[in-house]
Structure formats: structure tokens, C-alpha cells
Amino acid sequence: MIADTAVGALSALANPHRLAAYRLLVQAGPEGRAAGAIAEKLGLPASSLSFHLAHLMRAGLISQRRESRSLIYAADFEAMNGLIGFLTEKCCGGRSCAPGANPKPKRSAA
Amino acid sequence: MIADTAVGALSALANPHRLAAYRLLVQAGPEGRAAGAIAEKLGLPASSLSFHLAHLMRAGLISQRRESRSLIYAADFEAMNGLIGFLTEKCCGGRSCAPGANPKPKRSAA
DNA sequence: CTCATATTTTTATGATACTGGAAATATCGA
DNA sequence: TCGATATTTCCAGTATCATAAAAATATGAG
User: Fold this and answer.
1) CA gap B97, B94 in Å, rounded
2) How far apart are CA A41 and CA A45, in angstroms?
3) Do B27 and A105 touch (CB under 8 A)?
4) What DSSP designation does A85 have?
5) Nucleotide nearest to A35 (CA to C1')
């Protein structure tokens, strides 16, 4: 991941509504959730939610697929792991890492 | 971590200069780095960097300590892990989690 | 006390983001 | 084709953020 991508992803998450929507999708897993269901859960007008989902899409954090009349959104877990890896990269230059001692949030492939 | 805190942290990171400064501090580890050293490394005017560091401080992502004439900034690793935990919380509702299969970026205490 | 260094605060201007109603688009069923 | 459902695009008003020069503050040395 390059810095611009990371800034885009972080900007996308840096809004209460988008963060809520994103977390909802993270918890929903690969199956995802329809836009309408998200709007209802979050109590947002459809047009506002659409704006926020488009923002998350542009940032590459979620994906979209159509299923009949509904548009289903799902979190992109590779993007999430890429972002986390970018933030924690070369954490502490290799040393033991702070109070609780967390060498590195090791992820499978990264 | 509550949502407001997370939004604050993400907003703080959602800027190229702040993200660069933060990553520099993450890689520097608990020792941290003086404001002047960061400004030089990033090629930023002192006043601009100060603005950005204050933003990261307000978000709780970094800490400050004085050492003679210099102010030393260091990443707060607990905050970072808290943020990552918040993002990945209840990821996939427990199921296997996407392509690479990453159940959860397990961290020591969280 | 005064000067030099390190950093922050103040300030003004310009740019970007959020909001939600109304209209437009896409899909489905009869 | 027509109507209903699901969602997006358009719009404009308001609010928030980034920038960097200049002035202010804090520390240390002589």
C-alpha cells in the first residue's frame, strides 16, 4: 500500500456515519448487506448513506454487487489488512513495542 | 474504545503530513523523536508540523515530553492497538474472514 | 539579564466536506 | 408497458480544515 491509498482509506473512515457503516459491514462478513438495510440500521436518509458508501467505495474499502433490486455492499478485508499493515509497518524498528508488548499484529500473508 | 474516539483518531491520520509523521513515530518506537527532527525529515515548516502534531495529540495517538529545549513526540501504541481492535471488532461475526483467511489480528491483551 | 534555540499560538485566506430533498436510474412483477 | 421498489445523482447552503508567516513562549548558556 502506498501513502495516498492509506490517506484515502483513513479519510473515508474518518466520519461517524461512514465508520458506523464500515463496521457494520466488517461484522456482516463477505455476505454483506443491502444499502437499504444499512440505512435503516443507521437511521440515515438514503441519499446521505449513498454518498457515504460511494466514499468508502472510492477508497477501496468496500465492494458493491447487485442482487435483483438491491445493491449489496461488503467490506474488503484485504484492504483493511493492507491499511493496518501500513500503519504498523516496521513498528518500533523491530524492538519489543510498548507497554503490553505487541511485537506486531501478525497477519497471515503480510 | 468508543466511536467518537475512533473517528478522532482516524481524522487525525487522514492527512498526508500527519500520517507520515505518525508512521515515523511508530517506527521510532517508545524513544520518540524531537519536533525539529520530524520537521526536517518531512520537509515541513515548524508551525505547520506543530499544528499537525497537536492534532495527533488531541486524538490521543501520540504523547509529548520535554527534554531540555526539545519536545519529544512518541507514538502511543495502546491507542494504535485500540483503534485497530475497534475496526476489526467482531470481524465477520466470527466466521473465517475473506480470501487470505485472517480470523482476527490477535493482539496480546485485547 | 540577554541572547540564541526550539517550538507553539495566532491569524487570515482558500479549499474541501456534509447534508437531505427532489429528480433520475435500474430492476422486477403483472 | 405501467407501477412499485431500491438506490443514486444533483444541488446549494453551511461548516470545517490546511497552510505558513509572524509574534509569543519556554529553555539554556554566558
Assistant:
1) 8
2) 11
3) no
4) H
5) D7
Asked if B13 has any chain A CB less than 8 Å from its own CB, the reply is yes
The band of B104, judged by pLDDT with boundaries at 50, 70 and 90, is very low
Could you report the per-residue pLDDT of A19-61, keeping only the tens digit for each? 999 999 999 999 999 999 999 999 999 999 999 999 999 999 9
Residue A87 at interface with chain B, using a CB cutoff of 8 Å = yes
- Disruptive mutation site among A91, A95, A96, A106 for chain B (greatest number of B CBs within 10 Å): A91
Tell me which residue in A20, A84, A97 faces B84 most closely, judged by beta carbons.
A84
Is the pLDDT confidence value at B29 over 90? yes
Between the alpha carbon of residue B5 and those of residues A1, A92, B86, the distances in Å are 25, 24, 10
Q: What is the pLDDT of residue B97?
A: 67
Q: Which CA-bearing residue is nearest the C1' of D26?
A: B69
Nucleotide nearest to A69 (CA to C1'): C27
Phi, psi values for residue B65, rounded to 5°: -145, 145
Residues 6 or more apart in contact with residue A25 via CB below 8 angstroms: A32, A33, A38, A62, A73, A74, A75
Report pLDDT digits (tens) over A92-105: 877 766 444 444 44
B36: number of Cβ within 10 Å: 13
The predicted pLDDT at position B50 comes to: 95
Q: Does B74 touch chain A (CB under 8 A)?
A: no
